[in-house]
Amino acid sequence: MIEELARLARRDGPVTVLKKGRVLVVRAGDVVVKAHPPGTDERALRARLEAVRDLPGIMLPPLGLERLDGRLVTIWPAGEALTMADVDAGTTPWEEGGRLLALLHARPAPAGLPPAGGPARLARAMADLAAAGVPDDVAAPILAAYATLPPARDGGALTHGDWHLGQIVRYDGAWLLIDPDDLGGGDPAWDLARPAAWYAAGLLGPDDWERFLTSYLAAGGTAVSRDDPWRELDAPARALTVQLTATAVATAAKSGNSPDDAAQALLSACGRIVAVAKAGT
Asked: Which of 7, 124, 226, 234 counts the highest number of beta carbons within 10 A?
């Protein structure tokens, strides 16, 4: 399928596989082609692509939508992804991420757009955990933390649904959001929840967290309160902690490995979630 995707790009130049798994992403020249998972809802994807076209300066616009071997395929201009060199040099665009999310959240969700995909990603992570053969003693704190979570809050803001630093690229000199697969109406605090979960687990430094949150609020972000952002962030951050832990532990189990240091930090965070919940009862 890689060769077929490269042909859809209709570009000369080297072909590089950027991602291979549930989705297959190939770069050919200055174009990126993405084969979506089998069974992707075409109506929902078309609605999301249409919404992206109305977000100039916020999200990278698509070049087209095709079908290949029964799978939906989207075609995109190739942006410049954030690299580990950027991270090591201290140039991670936390400020740009906060600014772009604030601009996105200022838009109402267009009529007909599906709900944001964040809560569904949590459910899939828990299903993957159950299927991965994780030892009971390792899975226990994740399941206990999951049991403390309240239902996801509804919201009418336009939200990304799966935001992290990998969802930003440079294109024509500007930072833009990419990957609208989970774009939809929902609680915008979910878009801040992954870095919040990293921060709470000790995996994101306080300076980076402060840069991100300050930039978001300075750009008019409305997902959280200035006086107490954790009032809105607490529940989504706990949910993302559970999701990230379930994914990390399941991935390790599938490869026959023990949870690494990052997964251990997340497991500890799940334990703290359970302890706080018990203390409050």
From this structure: 234
Q: Please give the model's pTM, rounded to 2 decimal places.
A: 0.94
Q: Do 167 and 179 touch, CB atoms closer than 8 A?
A: yes
Measured CA distances, 8 to 28, 76, 170, 171, 224 (Å): 9, 11, 23, 21, 42
Instruction: Give the whole-angstrom CA distance, residue 93 versus residue 147.
Output: 34
Q: How many CB atoms lie within 10 A of CB 87?
A: 12
From the DSSP assignment, how many helices (H) and strands (E) are in the chain? 10, 10
Q: Using one digit for the tens of pLDDT, what is the confidence trace for 241-268? A: 999 999 999 999 999 999 999 999 999 9
Token couple for 79: 């942006």
Task: Count the neighbouring beta carbons within 10 Å of the beta carbon of residue 173.
Answer: 6
Question: Which domains are assigned to the chain?
Answer: 2-77 (3.30.200.20), 81-279 (3.90.1200.10)
Q: State in Å, rounded, how far the first CA of the chain is from the last one.
A: 54
Q: Are 148 and 273 in contact (CB under 8 A)?
A: yes
Beta bridge partners of 73: 35, 66
Determine how β-strand 168-171 pairs with β-strand 157-159: unpaired
Kindly list the distances between the CA atom of residue 224 and the CA atoms of 6, 126, 165, 197, 232, in Å, as whole numbers in the listed order: 42, 27, 19, 15, 6
Residue keyed to tokens 């999951």: 146
